[in-house]
Design a protein that fits this description.
Chain lengths: 451, 409
């Protein structure tokens, strides 16, 4: 009898010991060696967010997050050229944007910031390298191989102080040479966004092939610098991952102000028709389209040099820059006066951007194949944020502020957006090399912070 | 040989496909719990009010009472979808489902009874900051059923019985909202209670001297909750979108149960039991929170559940070791009602095996002490909730000791 009881309890005990928590698998390196990791790129690699570079942003760039995840494998150190705690500086020396409750509702407000971090070389940290995060806000493909890009002797406006502040030898070193000085086993290279973005941010009022700050980079310059970087980075046998350029016109910066957001009452529409009566008369005479206003949503009036009168109504699909928004409200842009050219991307300009993006992306893709590297198609990710991306109980989209992916500047990502990008890079790496680098927890990162 | 049996059981336990039970609680009588929660075809005391009201008039005695309480010590764990190093673990409060039953005889053929128990409930706490906090942080679901019962022996072999069920239900849950301020995520608390009705009917047949058969149907009870409190904690700039004093309505079904049970007195000392139980979980298709006041930022919350009907298979045995001592053991296999891609951390169900043991000590001819110990183990389940894209590997287990008394005049 006693034996029976003992037996029953033995069964129970043994069965209970059968149940256990799932074992946490040990991350695998697969065919890659992650013991030394460098990341080259632009503002996304640097962690520029909310219109400025800040320490929080640097620590939550997609590249820094990748570095942190690789620490779970064999990576020992990942050094970031950090700004001091609590300070920020944007490319026009302003501070980071914050959401504030204003008389006009909840709005992004630009803070004062810490311009000295870029303008005062005594704050620079050139001697503290080597750095593994070599992201330079504003950098284009060829900037990563140009020594003068970090040379203060070029004079203000002719060099990039974001690089000069941490370059190993300003004026001599380049992001690439700094990367090569590290005994790297793995690298990320995501560059090319600014090769088209500069043109887009200037409203397309620049050359479609040129070396100016608002031009689209010439294909030859892109090809040469890209191929050179990959050949150098892989020379030691290092493996890596590259990213393509997403369709930048899907950024909130170009889609917040929609072409037909001119709201008019019946009286206002009649007044607009009256105000543009001369225009319509000219249109009839010369055979181009008349202005058309009615009660409800209307297309904005924009400058267009190609039009005989120098203006027209914007068409569906054309883009207005976020920076035009204030003057649309306070200065009658788009209604009383046309929105200036440099705040509009028209059909032709959008086509130039798309063509250049496609050309650069095919160069990136061919190079990734040639050097046998993992590649992330960022356009696929951008497309999915357009539709809405459900991740761990929250939906993300490219809607401005409410979407959660893009920060208050409408161009750069929030911490959560960076985590989504980091996971896309990790996925591509795992797939290519058979590794199992763990994903970043998106819910652990900061999104849009509301007051 | 015995070691081999243990090994086989153990292997069955870890390898067998699936085992869960939604939010139903199988602890409605200490004696039955000790026997794998069989009892539809048995005469184990006034707890028949729950298991099969048809059996009540066949019980020996004129006035009887039984009551007991169990302590549910449960644990759930989560490993996020790979590749990830994230693990979560619940810190569940100890649940204390109870049952009390009393009955008295009006005539040789007619008995009246009253029962109160808690056949449904769920208590899970994953923590405020865990990774799945936008799905659930913690939930406490309770239901108390009160059932007046009448049972009548139509013939010396066939008895029927039944009674209305009055149910008191309450829910209290917290989840995080993806609206961040400097203090972190926002959150919502949903809290409310309600009453609802159902019924419980059964028939009991003494097939032969040694064999008895019972059929029991407990109706579904739909808890319709109106005017529950919806309390939001959101960033200040969102407060106008989440007005104070908002309320919600929601509906949660307690599923029906159809059980066929068999009792067989195999020897003078050994009683065997078998129960086949169908649970009408398909009633639970969605969990919707309809807020009294909707705003641009606050829409009604619609959450598909898509549960499916399940079967529970139970076997149990009672061995009269001594005149005063009865030993019990049982095992059951409980299918999960939750289909693939609808597994939430709020009810992380999986196919489960329950193994139980029990003991009764007859203190005198009126009073006995009853105890049971149940261990429930869920099969490891790698699944998730598609509408919110949250996946991982869930494990669950519970130890449930219980104690009760039975008194018969």
């Amino acid at each position: 009898m006693i034996f029976r009881i003992t037996y029953i309890f033995a069964v129970l005990f043994l069965l209970s010991s059968c149940t256990k928590e799932a074992d946490v698998p040990t991350p695998k390196n697969g065919g890659a060696d992650f013991s030394s990791f460098v990341s080259l790129g632009d503002s996304y690699t640097a962690g520029y967010t909310n219109g400025a570079l800040s320490r929080d942003g640097q620590e939550s760039s997609f590249a820094s997050m990748m570095g942190a995840q690789l620490m779970n494998l064999s990576l020992e150190t990942y050094s970031i050229p950090l700004l001091p705690e609590g300070k920020s500086v944007g490319s026009s020396l302003e501070g980071e944007m914050q959401l504030k409750v204003t008389t006009g509702g909840i709005q992004p407000v630009t803070t004062t910031g810490n311009p000295e971090l870029l303008t005062d070389p005594s704050t620079w940290i050139n001697a503290n390298g080597p750095y593994h995060n070599l992201g330079i806000p504003g950098a284009r493909s060829y900037h990563l191989v140009a020594p003068e890009y970090g040379d203060p002797n070029q004079g203000v406006g002719n060099f990039n102080p974001y690089y000069a502040r941490f370059a190993s030898v300003p004026g001599v070193s380049t992001a690439l040479s700094d990367a090569l000085a590290v005994e790297r086993t793995f690298f990320s290279l995501w560059i090319g966004g600014n090769d088209v973005l500069g043109y887009a941010l200037a409203g397309g009022e620049a050359e479609t092939s040129g070396m100016g700050s608002a031009d689209i980079t010439p294909v030859a310059a892109f090809t040469q610098s890209y191929a050179y970087m990959l050949s150098q980075l892989t020379a030691s046998g290092a493996k890596g991952v590259v990213g393509t350029i997403p369709a930048i016109d899907k950024l909130p910066f170009f889609s917040v102000v929609m072409p037909n957001m001119l709201a008019l009452s019946a009286e206002q529409a009649a007044a607009m028709d009256a105000a543009y009566a001369d225009y319509d008369a000219a249109a009839q005479q010369y055979g181009f389209e008349e202005m058309d206003f009615s009660a409800g949503a209307n297309f904005f009036v924009i400058e267009d040099e190609a039009n005989p009168v120098g203006m027209r109504q914007i068409k569906a699909g054309e883009k207005i820059l976020l920076t035009a928004r204030t003057n649309i409200t306070v200065a009658g842009w788009g209604s009383e006066v046309p929105i200036p050219d440099e705040y509009v991307l028209d059909e032709n300009e959008l086509q130039s951007i798309e063509e250049a993006t496609n050309t650069f992306n095919s160069i990136i893709e061919n190079s990734a194949n040639q050097f046998d590297l993992a590649m992330v198609d960022l356009d696929v990710l951008m497309e999915s944020t357009q539709e809405g991306l459900m991740i761990d109980g929250n939906i993300y989209s490219n809607a401005y502020i409410t979407g959660g992916v893009f920060s208050l500047d409408g161009i750069h990502t929030t911490g959560r957006g960076s985590a989504i990008i980091a996971n896309a890079f990790i996925e591509a790496v795992n797939e290519k090399y058979g590794s199992s680098v763990p994903y970043v927890l998106v819910n652990d990162q900061t999104g849009i912070v509301f007051p | 040989m015995k070691y081999l049996l243990l090994t086989v059981l153990c292997a069955f336990f870890t390898l067998h496909q699936g085992f869960a039970e939604g939010y139903q609680v199988n602890l409605q009588g200490q004696k039955q719990t000790g026997m794998g929660h069989t009892g539809t075809g048995l005469l184990l005391g006034p707890s028949s009010i729950h298991f099969n009201p048809g059996a009540l008039s066949f019980l020996e005695g004129d006035v009887m009472f039984s009551g007991g309480v169990s302590g549910v010590i449960s644990q759930n764990s989560f490993l996020k979808e790979q590749p990830s190093l994230y693990t979560g673990e619940t810190d569940n409060p100890v649940g204390t489902p109870f049952s009390v039953y009393g009955a008295f005889r009006l005539s040789e053929k007619l008995m009246l009874g009253l029962g109160a128990n808690s056949p449904y409930g769920n208590s899970l706490s994953w923590g405020e900051d865990w990774d799945g906090r936008y799905l659930i942080q913690d939930i406490s679901l309770q239901a108390i059923f009160v059932q007046p019962t009448i049972s009548y022996a139509i013939t010396p072999r066939i008895s029927i019985g039944g009674g209305p069920v009055l149910a008191f239900g309450s829910v209290d849950l917290n989840k995080a909202l993806p609206l961040q301020s400097d203090e972190g995520d926002g959150s919502v608390n949903l809290n409310g209670s309600t009453t609802a009705y159902g019924y419980n009917v059964g028939v009991f047949v003494k097939v032969s001297k040694d064999v008895s058969l019972g059929v029991n149907y407990r109706s579904k009870v739909v808890m319709e909750l109106d005017g529950g409190d919806a309390t939001f904690d959101v960033p200040e700039s969102f407060q106008t979108n989440f007005p104070d004093g908002n309320t919600f309505s929601a509906e949660l079904p307690m599923p029906s149960n159809l059980t066929i049970g068999l009792g067989w007195k195999a020897t003078d000392k050994l009683l065997l039991a078998l129960d086949l139980q169908q649970v009408g979980w398909s009633e639970y298709q969605e969990l919707n929170f309809d807020f009294e006041e909707n705003t641009a930022a606050l829409e009604d919350s619609e959450n598909p559940r898509n549960f499916e009907n399940t079967m529970v298979y139970r076997v149990g045995a009672e061995y009269s070791a001594l005149e005063q001592l009865k030993l019990r053991a049982g095992i059951y296999y409980d299918e999960t009602p939750i289909p693939s891609d609808y597994l939430t951390p709020e009810t992380p169900g999986t196919n489960k095996i329950g193994i139980s043991a029990g003991v009764s000590w007859q203190l005198n001819d009126k009073l006995s002490l009853d105890a049971s110990l149940l261990h429930i183990s869920g099969e490891e389940r790698k699944d998730g909730y598609a509408p919110l894209n949250y996946y991982g590997t869930y494990n669950s287990s519970a130890w449930i000791p219980g104690f009760g008394v039975s008194w018969t005049l």
